[in-house]
Amino acid sequence: MKHTVSLSRLSLLMLLVLSIQAFTIAQTYCNSSASNNGGEYISKVVFGSINSPSGTSFYTNFTSVVGNVIFGNTYTLTVTIFANAAWTEFCNAWIDFNNDGDFIDVGEVIDMGSRQGGGDFSSSVLISGSIGIRRMRVTLRYNAVPASCDVFGDGEVEDYSINITGGCSDIAPPTGVTLSANVSSSVINGAVQFNATALDNVGVTKVEFYGDAQKLGESMISPYKLGWTPLTAGAKSITSRAYDACGNYTNSSPVNVNVTNYCSN
Fold this sequence. Notes:
The protein has one helix at residues 2-23; strands spanning 33-36, 41-47, 50-53, 59-70, 74-82, 88-95, 109-116, 119-126, 132-142, 151-165, 175-181, 187-188, 192-199, 204-211, 214-219, 224-228, 234-244, 249-251, 255-259. By secondary structure, it is mainly beta. The strands form four sheets. Strands 1, 4, 6, 7, 9 and 10 form a six-stranded mixed sheet that branches. Strands 12, 14, 15, 17, 18 and 19 form a six-stranded mixed sheet that branches. A four-stranded antiparallel sheet has the order 3-2-5-8, with no helix packed on it. The chain is globular and about 60 Å long.
């Protein structure tokens, strides 16, 4: 009996290791780099356990520098830059929380705004997704908002690794995510209610509703509903996004509507 128990524990340990490895599958990311150091650069990044000073460069691969963070906690990302006092500088960061090899998913961009000259950019970041190693990209760009896959003029790009721990072992996203509206046609003449459905092996925690990629609201209780009064006319694409307790999510297919009557205020 003792040998059987030991083998069972060993099997469970091996399964856990394999599962963690599955969460940290290496991804290939798009290239992003400045092409000129016009005098501005990232001089330090602080996030979680990362405290990384650096000098001038077009692009630096700091993925060997790992920031340890805990799922569900909020951390402050601080990016210190050097720049002439007269220059307008923009900074954005991204974390690939769902480890799909890009930074385009909702919740992955950290808009840090702009400032005149050198100093600190700072933003709060809620750690979502699931446990494992994730890529973080930080971009400084002169006089323009940076994108995650930019090759541009003046500024700098730095890539880091984020190790999310203490989170959920569940990596299965919600299923059966649908969206419908309580109207008989795609033409909307005023207020409308959208209804969403979703299932999950652990449990759905909330459903968010988006119109043309802008969040309209959310519902945390089934049946998931959103009452919406359009503020502008024209074609709109409405989607829902269902989350589980581990931050896994699934998007519905869009519901395309044409607003002909709306509330201007």
